[in-house]
Amino acid sequence: MSSRRTLGLSAALAVVFASATGCARAPSPLAPQFAGSIGMPHRGILTASAELPAEGDGYKWLRQDDRHHGLPRFVKAIERAAATVARERPGAMLGVGDLSTRTGGQLLPHLSHRTGRDADLLFYLTTLDGAPVESPGFIHVGRDGLAWDEKGKRFLRFDVERTWLLVKTLVEDPEARIQWVFANRNVEALLLEWARARGESGETLVRAMDVMLEPRPGGPHDDHVHIRTACSPAELVAGCEHTGPVRPWIEALDRSARDTSPDWELVDALFRPFGTAREARATTALAPPPDHAR
Ligand SMILES: [Zn+2]
């Protein structure tokens, strides 16, 4: 077979693989290096996933199904954050909604949750007297911080203290690499007001303000937070596709890791194929708001 025919056959096979998987960067005999979170949150798949155990220190699944898979480091970060809240403010349980399926891909009704980088976390709630209760599910929190629990026929209170501790732990965790905490503006206001009153550090506040956003469209997010992790440099090489803003503190982490690597020039060339972070931010600023947050 001539080399031109071989090339033609390879190209045709690539098209077949891409259309069969629905993801141009899926692992295949032609691209065996792709693994983990492959593609973008709203258009991608997941391999080598880890499943969040059904129950752990300070958390439990909301539903018993196969929707709790993610990038292993992301799953660990969720476990760590729940355990931190349980240790520092004992007595409550974080309800965990959907992550991704074992192999990723479409997960209705979500637009994203396809690549193991998204997770829905329920709010911590208390009774009106402040006693922690297990969240009955996705219930809406109003401007006054109250939430009607239809099942229990009672009002519950948004547990701003524990929910803030959860957000704080996540944005301060370097392995979590939190790019977004999708939450509605009212929830964001309640959390930030609490954080300021507590005297949280400026850096933590800036991170929280950067990552919290009410996505449109994507649902009101007044009944849970949706967290998304950013690709790591190694994950980018393995097929993870970045979308949206680059967080300065995550960039700084990667820069310091890179500066201690002997091959940093090569690493830089591999990790920044589309220009500098500043250019990426400028591009992002022009882009429409994320429409795949749900
Ligand atoms: Zn979500």
Structure description:
The protein is an alpha+beta fold. The chain has a single domain, classed as Muramoyl-pentapeptide Carboxypeptidase, domain 2, CATH 3.30.1380.10. It contains 9 helices and 15 strands. The chain has helices spanning 3-21, 72-88, 160-172, 185-198, 202-211, 233-237, 248-259, 264-271, 277-286; strands spanning 37-40, 43-46, 50-51, 55-56, 59-61, 69-70, 94-96, 118-122, 125-126, 132-133, 146-149, 154-158, 178-182, 212-213, 224-229. It has a 4-stranded mixed β-sheet. The protein has a 4-stranded antiparallel β-sheet with strand order 10-9-12-11, with no helix packed on it. Helix 3 packs across helix 4. It is globular, with a radius of gyration of 20 Å. Bound molecules: zinc ion. The site of zinc ion has 6 residues, from strand 8.
